[in-house]
Amino acid sequence: MSDPDTSLPTPDAVLDTTGLYCPEPIMMMHNQVRDMNVGQLLEVIATDPATTRDVPKFCTFLGHELVAQSQEEERYRYVIRLA
Fold first, then answer.
1. Once rounded to an integer, what is the mean pLDDT over residues 50-78?
2. Does the annotation mark 22 as catalytic?
3. What's the pTM value of the predicted model, to 2 decimals?
């Protein structure tokens, strides 16, 4: 995973799924996305290594853009632009 890109705009919402395991982070992402608009940015913070597989698949399946992803120790960060 790459380093966080500090040039990214501030996300419109942050979803912290720290301590949760599959399928909870993805279920929470589905719920959060429902409350957001097209083009908004969602930042997801996770500790479940399965999110490295699940978040990109979530984006591909639903047409969202995975703008950035990074890992710092055991914490994963994703920035998603909603379709």
1. 96
2. yes
3. 0.89
